[in-house]
Design brief:
Elements: H1 3-24, E1 30-45, H2 51-58, E2 66-67, E3 88-97, E4 105-116, E5 125-133, E6 137-139, E7 142-144, E8 149-154, E9 160-166, E10 170-177, E11 182-183, H3 188-192, E12 196-198, E13 204-209, H4 211-214, E14 219-222, H5 227-235, E15 270-277, E16 289-293, E17 297-302, H6 307-310, H7 312-334, E18 342-347, E19 353-359, H8 365-371, E20 378-380, E21 394-404, E22 408-419, E23 427-435, E24 439-441, E25 445-447, E26 452-458, E27 461-468, E28 472-479, E29 506-509, H9 512-516, E30 520-522, E31 528-533, E32 541-544, E33 551-553, E34 569-573, E35 577-582, H10 587-594
Parallel strand pairs: 5-12, 23-30
Antiparallel strand pairs: 1-3, 1-16, 1-17, 2-4, 3-4, 4-5, 6-7, 8-9, 9-10, 10-15, 11-14, 12-13, 13-17, 14-16, 18-21, 18-35, 19-21, 19-34, 20-22, 21-22, 22-23, 24-25, 26-27, 27-28, 28-33, 29-32, 30-31, 31-35, 32-34
Helix pairs in contact: 1-7
């Protein structure tokens, strides 16, 4: 069978199995989609004296959720983390493709805010409080009727942005001159918020994204009030305590036009902004910020994860709606009309996952490229996996326990590559995969499990090993470190009580740019999987193991001759990581080129 035929038959069958699981309520439905061409986010600052009132209006206390402040944009200075966070209400409007095979797009607008929720830890996450679409849809709050008018449009050469809404609760018209906007990088807070998506009844979905979000540089228009008024606004964004009457501070509104900060003839980017909604009483009249994302943002979702705990009728509706969709999508995958997508979870209930990195010897770098051999157009690239780590050429072994696609104990030897002549972040390149269960990959196709693979945590010592035919084996042992938790907790995730700590550890954080390496995961023949990941993944704390505490033997592996014998880094991850994988994403393109 051709590689395309294998992809459609194997993953088409997988998709049919997933559809059956969705219908039975044993599998969570998943979907991926793109926000593209015209993503506009209007951020209005919630008035300080209205925060508690808005929480009460939405009954957020009933589900243990509170409105949270957030930083949307990053500053190019060392004091970025010290900048105040703002309580914001956002209107997110975007175009989304109807399907892989349908060139039409739908227009969707959602009123959203940032909340602190039990399942998402200390960083803010998203909540939808109202939706307006140009088609009929459904949400955990019930049916979403088709609105008379929802339009998102971009003029020639992206110069003009138009957003119009005429729905039951919102009327809005925005005309924006994009040539007067400036690019700015999104803040980590904004990326982290794409971890969960809540609704006011407590139902949530898990969100996934990739480097198109975490490295995004939207075009931005900041509020044009005078500087003094802006500074006073920032001082007044703190939430008052329960029972406190009135605002924490009294501020006077500027009498100047919202469209200009002074009396000069400086043009305003906002040509028209007319807005009325039921949220108007809770927010400032002029937007705090408007952002336009000219590039496509790739997203995914695992749908209504806790519906069974909230509403049994909603859970049944989820099964019916999404099993029908999943069955149609499975038929499209089997016919080669849709890319397959599968959930993949790095579990940590029994053992943590880890990366052990070996620096490639300077005199063997090109020999390794030849020995692989790398497909045309790819070269090994240096990478920095953690925030305070070295930039170096490495071979890394990632050991973990997985569920979903390719379940069981797994080990993957990888390096990092870049496309010749293209400036981009390095991507994973899998050199070898070892598994406790039969697995499928684009190089070996059907691969038998390892002769043995062990991964244990006993008496505070983690030990992992495997053996393969031809006397190939691997062994590692080290004392389990204490957990590295950032901001006082680990995004609401509990480390297993089986993880008994016997060693102190230094802590660091996996870089955003490291996670972008997961956007594309190459295999030896040039085929790659596309990966997207939840907001929790890009906030991953790691424990760094002292090299003197490590016992490791890689001498019989194929990679030992190319790397230094002692590891340069050993990073332990003690929280689960969630991915959506589109396997063999470019196989059709490769097969066409090779004909």
């Amino acid at each position: 069978a051709s590689r395309v035929g294998l992809k459609t038959s194997i993953y088409g069958g997988f998709a049919y199995g997933r559809a059956a699981g969705v219908a039975a309520g044993t599998t969570n439905p998943v979907e991926n989609y793109d926000w593209h061409n015209a993503v506009v986010v209007h951020n209005w600052e919630i008035r300080p004296d209205k925060i508690d009132e808005l929480e009460d209006y939405l009954h957020l206390a009933d589900i243990g959720v509170s409105i949270a402040p957030v930083r949307i944009l990053e500053q190019d200075d060392d004091e970025n983390e010290d900048r105040p966070k703002i309580y914001l209400l956002s209107l997110s409007c975007k175009q989304i493709d109807v399907s892989d095979q349908d060139p039409r797009t739908t227009n969707q607008c959602d009123w959203m805010m940032y909340v602190q929720a039990p399942e998402s830890g200390p960083e803010p996450t998203l909540m939808i409080i109202e939706s307006a679409y140009d088609f009929e849809a459904v949400s955990p709050l019930g049916p979403i009727p088709q609105s008379p008018l929802v339009e998102v449009a971009v003029g020639d050469e992206n110069n003009t942005i138009v957003v119009q809404i005429d729905s039951t609760d919102t009327q809005l018209e925005l005309l924006l001159d994009a040539t007067l906007l400036s690019p700015q990088k999104v803040d980590k807070d904004f990326v982290y918020s794409f971890d969960k998506l809540y609704w006011p009844n407590g139902v949530y979905s898990r969100l996934f994204s990739d480097g198109s979000l975490s490295l995004a540089k939207p075009l931005v228009l900041n509020r044009s009030d005078n500087a003094a008024d802006n500074e006073e606004d920032r001082k007044c964004t703190g939430k008052k305590k329960k029972g406190q009457k009135g605002s924490r501070c009294s501020k006077k509104k500027s009498k100047k036009s919202d469209k200009s900060s002074d009396d000069t003839d400086t043009p305003s980017a906002i040509i028209i902004l007319d807005h009325t909604s039921r949220w108007s009483e809770f927010i400032d009249q002029s937007p705090y910020q408007i952002m336009y994302f000219p590039e496509t943002i790739t997203l995914g979702a695992e749908i209504w994860l806790n519906a069974v705990d909230i509403d049994t009728e909603l859970f049944a509706a989820r099964a019916e709606i999404y099993s029908n969709r999943a069955t149609i999508e499975a038929a499209e995958v089997a016919a080669g009309l849709r890319e397959p997508i599968a959930a993949f979870v790095v579990e940590t209930d029994n053992v943590p996952s880890y990366y052990i990195n070996f620096r490639i010897r300077d005199d063997r770098l090109h020999d390794l490229e030849a020995a692989i051999p790398l497909p045309d157009g790819l070269t090994i690239a240096p990478t920095r996996m953690r925030k305070n780590g070295p930039l170096e050429y490495i071979v890394t072994l990632n050991m973990y326990e997985a569920s979903g696609l390719s379940p069981g104990l797994r080990g993957e030897w990888s390096t990092f590559v870049e496309l010749d002549g293209i400036s981009s972040e390095p991507h994973f390149f899998v050199l070898e995969a070892v598994s406790s269960t039969p697995s499928f990959d684009p190089v070996n196709l059907f691969t038998a499990p390892a002769l043995s693979i062990e991964y244990n945590l006993e008496m505070g010592v983690l030990t992992s090993s495997y053996s393969l035919p031809n006397d190939v084996s691997y062994f590692l042992s080290f004392p389990m470190p204490e957990s590295c938790n950032f901001q006082g907790q680990q995004r609401g995730r509990k480390t297993s009580t089986q993880h008994r700590f016997t060693a102190e550890s230094k802590c660091d954080e996996l870089l955003f740019k490291y996670w972008v390496s997961n956007d594309i995961i190459y295999w030896g023949n040039g085929i790659y999987d596309r990966g997207i990941y939840d907001g929790n993944a890009v906030a991953t704390p790691v424990s760094i193991i002292d090299p003197s505490l490590i016992a490791v033997d890689i001498s019989s592996t194929p990679w030992a001759e190319f790397v230094e014998p002692n590891p340069s880094d050993l990073l332990v991850v003690q929280q689960p990581l969630h991915f959506l994988i589109s396997p063999m994403f470019n196989v059709e393109e490769l097969d066409t080129c090779e004909r």
